[in-house]
Automatic annotation (TrEMBL):
This is DUF2849 domain-containing protein.
Length: 114
């Protein structure tokens, strides 16, 4: 079990995240098995089945060109899944700095597939 995976409740739900190997961008697994830049497009999985999902995605990480695959517990919200921890909220919705210091490549909303 990944060290971050111990933060998931048995009854909760999670999404799968990773970093894109090419540029380090944070990506989220969608229902079609593609990696997206927006958590709003992420597929939600039951926590009791996450180990199998993570094993499957880790096995094809090189093919998908992603690294650091792990599960993030989320709660449903009107805009899509929302991580329950501060760290993961920053990863999903960041940055945690003033907008004037946001990198030019950081999208304001929406996403593009990987």
């Amino acid at each position: 079990m990944d060290r971050r995976n111990n933060r998931r409740d048995a009854e909760g739900s999670s999404v799968v995240t990773a970093n894109r190997l090419l540029d380090g961008r944070i990506v989220w697994l969608d229902p079609a098995g593609k990696w997206q830049l927006s958590i709003a497009q992420a597929q939600t999985f039951s926590n009791d089945g996450m180990e199998a999902v993570l094993a499957r995605q880790t096995a094809k990480a090189a093919e998908d060109e992603v690294v650091g695959i792990y599960g993030v517990q989320v709660e449903p919200s009107s805009s899509g899944p929302e991580p329950i921890t501060t760290r993961e909220r920053i990863r999903a919705f960041g940055p945690s700095v003033h907008a004037a210091f946001t990198p030019a490549w950081q999208p304001l909303s929406g996403s593009a597939g990987v």
